[in-house]
Design a protein that fits this description.
The structure holds 2 protein chains of 2 kinds.
Chain A: H1 3-20, H2 23-45, H3 47-78, H4 85-101, H5 118-149, H6 157-179, E1 184-185, H7 205-227, H8 229-239, H9 241-246, H10 251-277, E2 279-280, H11 284-299, H12 304-324, H13 330-344
Chain B: H1 2-24, E1 38-45, H2 52-68, E2 72-73, E3 76-84, E4 86-87, E5 92-93, H3 95-107, E6 111-115, H4 120-133, E7 136-139, E8 168-170, H5 175-188, E9 193-198, H6 202-217, E10 221-227, H7 236-244, E11 249-253, H8 260-269, E12 278-281, H9 288-294, E13 302-305, H10 315-327, H11 336-356, H12 364-372, E14 377-379, E15 382-384, E16 396-403, E17 406-414
Parallel strand pairs in B: 1-3, 1-6, 6-7, 7-8, 9-10, 9-11, 11-12, 12-13
Antiparallel strand pairs in B: 2-3, 4-5, 13-16, 14-15, 16-17
Classes of the chains: A mainly alpha, B alpha/beta.
Chain lengths: 361, 418
């Protein structure tokens, strides 16, 4: 077949597709195209502002994406919405703060922070906070599963859902007892200075930090699930628990490891959130968790790529709405997009067959 | 503080037992002579969240006012209870809790006076309930204009007073004047354009409206006006957008609990430092906690306050600050003196009302009348009166600026001069 023929068949298939589609999806496509055109027009008018907002959206979205992965991992394997996940994220930020503020076991590692400690100490502190928070949150998530979800694995779905909400409240109130009801500041360990020359486009060290932690985590997770034996076991359990156990896979351990992974991501994102925004509070998990859950559903719950796409989309839609529509409208825009997506694609953008099960639709 | 409270409680217990004894003795109607009757006053403040340190000093100040009168108003013993209108879950004042506190007080007939609340949004819930109950209220801190005076909302203030009779007064200067003060400050600092933000609450939005109005009158350009989402993770997109409009100043109408520190951090983080682009906030963020939350980013911000800081108070005011700081471990906060003043006005009103009733326990209506009759009151805030709306005759406001990690008094602005 010549290239010309290929193009011909392709365009014919496209026309066929348009003919077969319902008028609702045509409207939806038209709407999306119109929105993109408006956005691009704005982008052409003021490219700097557009790029700046895009960077903000991506960095905000990265944190949401990491939390969303925790929701979607657990859903992919035991079809449970782990409502305590957002609060686990909050615990992660508190653990990070505790390590950094040096109130940990009375150690004063980072007592006099504020740049004077030197870059080396700062990097060390950030790494230590990340690792400790990841370990604590990972184990916490495993513990929550053991105590609150595992005994109910064969009970009606509603029972587990309620214990999940219960765990969420317990963690939130523990956070409240731990750090009090007011916002608590995070030490400024990462510079606000711009990396790029000039000040037309701002890409700060903080932004680099977010990208620099998110990308390896995503790559690592994806490698773990697709290339390791344990990842294979996870995929098998997600497909069919009974068949997997008949094949000699330890289902309980596999589920525990899934929760461990989710908790690790929550811990990392908690510390990143604190270092990035500079403030954290005991109920931060609720709002961030809600956005992350929305992201997971938007991308297709259970689908790992979907959660990441959904997270970035929500971040970018949020910053674009802040810029071009108005702050009052941001939440309305985000949730309208969610409703629209679910109306036209009830399984989310990339479909809800989990990536754990083999990815995509 | 614990000791002080237990002393008050002890006094109250003592009084109760005396009364009980009198009752058992079969005394027929108040002829006992000597033993005092008891009434109760309550305060209603957010005791949890970012304002906790401040409201603790306010409760101390009220207890101090009662102690200094030996626990009495005239011959009537005063029992005091501090109510909390915040929930731990919210970390701030909570509408449902405000309503609940007011309902309880409305039904407790021993209560003849109410000091508070702290937040205007809370007052909007409580005033109608306590108005029906006829309970007199004195707020040390509410500044939202519509609570007592006409506002852009035509149903205000009448919707708060279902009985048609006023029962609410405040010792702090209201936001029409704080709004003017904000605009005057901008003019004095040669600010030609401002971007106005609010936290979408009744107080923050109302105040931002007043600032906008006054700024327009003074010819300051309004570059934009938006209400922030207090639950947002950060405000970087918003600040980036504001930066593009190149303002001389950003005004924020809101309270500290609504993520104000994050807003300030992100403003500075977006490359608008507080020298080139001024940040002006109201009394709602005039809390030490803000400085620890926002850190270096708070350096150089301006705060308007519908009153005077402790250093500028009258001689009585200085005396109060000294007494307070000698008795309690914590330092006087911006609203401490206002709570003390509110308590003294309330105690005077109860005393006068009981004198009129011939030394008997006064009824709520008489106390309300005496509150509104307050004239040329010589207190820690100076000499002032309540007008028929329950607003103070004082018009002086102050401007502070954050310097070296502390609020520093800058100057006084008289809103009457505008």
């Amino acid at each position: 077949m010549s290239t010309q023929e290929v193009t011909k068949t392709r365009s014919r298939a496209l026309i066929e597709g348009v003919r077969a589609s319902s008028w609702q999806s045509r409207i939806a496509v038209a709407l999306v195209v119109a929105l993109l055109v408006i956005l691009l027009e704005q982008a052409a008018k003021e490219p700097d502002q557009f790029v700046a907002q895009l960077i903000i959206g991506i960095t905000n979205g990265a944190i949401i994406a990491l939390i969303a992965l925790g929701y979607t991992l657990v859903y992919g394997i035991i079809e449970l919405i782990n409502f305590a996940h957002g609060d686990n994220f909050m615990i992660g930020s508190f653990v990070g703060l505790t390590v950094l503020s040096g109130t940990f076991l009375g150690l004063e590692f980072f007592g006099a922070i504020g740049g004077e400690g030197g870059t080396f100490l700062n990097v060390l502190g950030v790494l230590l906070a990340l690792v400790v928070a990841m370990v604590v949150c990972g184990l916490l998530n495993v513990g929550i599963e053991r105590v609150a979800y595992k005994p109910l694995r064969n009970s009606p779905r509603l029972a587990v859902l309620i214990t999940a909400i219960g765990m969420s409240f317990i963690l939130q109130n523990l956070g409240l007892v731990w750090k009090g009801p007011a916002q608590v500041p995070f030490p400024e360990l990462i510079s606000d200075a711009n990396i790029l020359p000039g000040d037309s486009i701002v890409f700060r060290w903080k932004d680099l930090f977010i990208v620099g932690v998110t990308v390896p985590l995503l790559v690592g997770l994806s490698y773990f699930i697709s290339n390791t034996k344990q990842g294979k076991a996870m995929r098998a359990v997600a497909q069919d628990k009974e068949a997997a156990s008949m094949m000699g896979i330890n289902v309980n351990r596999t589920i525990s490891i899934t929760f461990l992974l989710g908790g690790i991501l929550a811990g990392a994102s908690g510390v990143m959130y604190g270092l990035f925004n500079g403030i954290t509070v005991f109920n931060v998990g609720f709002t961030q968790g809600l956005y992350a859950f929305t992201a997971a559903v938007l991308g297709g719950i259970g689908n790992l790529t979907g959660a990441v796409v959904g997270g970035f989309l929500i971040g970018i839609i949020g910053s674009m709405a802040d810029q071009y529509i108005g702050v009052e409208w941001t939440a309305i825009v985000i949730f309208s997009v969610l409703i629209l997506v679910l109306v036209f694609r009830p399984r989310g953008l990339l479909g809800d067959r989990s990536a754990v099960q083999g990815g995509g639709e | 503080m614990g000791r002080v409270r237990s002393r008050v409680v002890l006094a109250a217990l003592g009084v109760t037992s005396v009364l009980l004894a009198a009752g058992c003795g079969g005394a027929s109607g108040g002829g006992g002579g000597g033993e005092a009757e008891t009434v109760k006053i309550v305060s209603d403040l957010p005791r949890q969240g970012a304002n906790r340190a401040q409201t603790t000093t306010m409760v101390n100040a009220i207890e101090l006012a009662i102690q200094q009168r030996d626990g009495k108003a005239g011959d009537i013993r005063i029992e005091y209870e501090s109510l909390d209108d915040a929930t731990a879950q919210a970390g701030a004042w909570d509408e449902a809790k405000c309503g609940e506190n007011a309902q309880k007080a409305a039904q407790d007939e021993d209560i003849v006076g109410w000091i508070g609340p702290f937040n205007s949004g809370c007052a909007a819930v409580e005033i109608p309930i306590l108005n029906r109950a006829g309970l007199g209220m004195i707020s040390p801190a509410n500044t939202y204009i519509g609570l007592t005076k006409p506002s852009p909302d035509p149903s205000e203030p009448d919707k708060y007073y279902p009985t048609g009779k006023r029962n609410y007064a405040r010792v702090i200067v209201a936001d029409d004047e704080q709004g003017q003060a904000g605009a005057i400050l901008m003019e004095e600092e040669d600010i030609e354009s401002v971007y106005i933000l609010d936290d979408k609450q009744i107080y923050g939005k109302g105040l931002a409206d007043e600032v906008q109005k006054s700024a327009e009158e003074l010819g300051i350009e309004i570059l934009g006006r938006e209400g922030i989402d207090s639950k947002a993770a950060n405000y970087r997109s918003l600040m980036n957008k504001i930066k593009e409009t190149d303002p001389d100043a950003i005004y924020f109408g809101g309270i500290i609990e609504q993520n104000s520190a994050q807003l300030i951090k992100d403003k500075v983080g977006a490359g608008m430092n507080n020298e080139d682009v001024a940040f002006i906030g109201p009394d709602g963020i005039f809390v030490d906690e803000l400085l620890s939350q926002a850190g270096d980013a708070a350096e150089g911000i301006y705060i308007t306050f519908g009153g005077l800081p402790e250093s500028e108070l009258s001689a009585e005011g200085q005396e109060f600050v000294e007494t307070y700081e000698s008795r309690y471990d914590d330092d006087v906060q911006p609203y401490t003196a206002y709570a003390y003043e509110a308590a003294n006005v309330m105690l005077d009103a109860i005393e006068l009302a009981s004198e009129e009733a011939g030394g008997e326990v006064p009824d709520r209506e008489a106390v309300v009348e005496q509150i509104f009759a307050t004239e040329d009151f010589e207190g820690v805030l100076g000499t002032w009166s309540f007008d028929e709306d329950g607003d103070t005759s004082l018009t002086e406001l102050s401007v502070q600026r954050v310097k070296n990690g502390a609020f520093e008094y800058q100057r006084t602005i008289d809103a009457d001069e505008m």
